[in-house]
């Protein structure tokens, strides 16, 4: 979902885009955040991206000087998000972090 243009951003000539991605659990939202956070924008200026988790929702907001830069950043992020979601789906829900006991029997 795109965020409305705020008065402050309009005066600065900034474009803003906000995306909320719901996950089945807060654990999965946190895993997505950890997987996607290391990806910094390659360009120093002109764009900023912020990722946060609230409950089961991953929120991402971008602010950019130019539509082209914003489009490339959002497109790249969506590709990475798709890969993270496909990977989580392939491996199933996350296992609890609790210690598991492995028992073995000797014959």
TrEMBL record:
The keyword Mitochondrion does not apply. Pfam families: Pcc1. It comes from the Eukaryota. Component of the EKC/KEOPS complex composed of at least GON7, TP53RK, TPRKB, OSGEP and LAGE3; the whole complex dimerizes. One of its GO terms (cellular component) is cytoplasm. GO terms for biological process: tRNA processing; tRNA threonylcarbamoyladenosine metabolic process. Keywords: Cytoplasm, Nucleus, tRNA processing. Component of the EKC/KEOPS complex that is required for the formation of a threonylcarbamoyl group on adenosine at position 37 (t(6)A37) in tRNAs that read codons beginning with adenine. The complex is probably involved in the transfer of the threonylcarbamoyl moiety of threonylcarbamoyl-AMP (TC-AMP) to the N6 group of A37. LAGE3 functions as a dimerization module for the complex. This is L antigen family member 3. Its main location: cytoplasm.
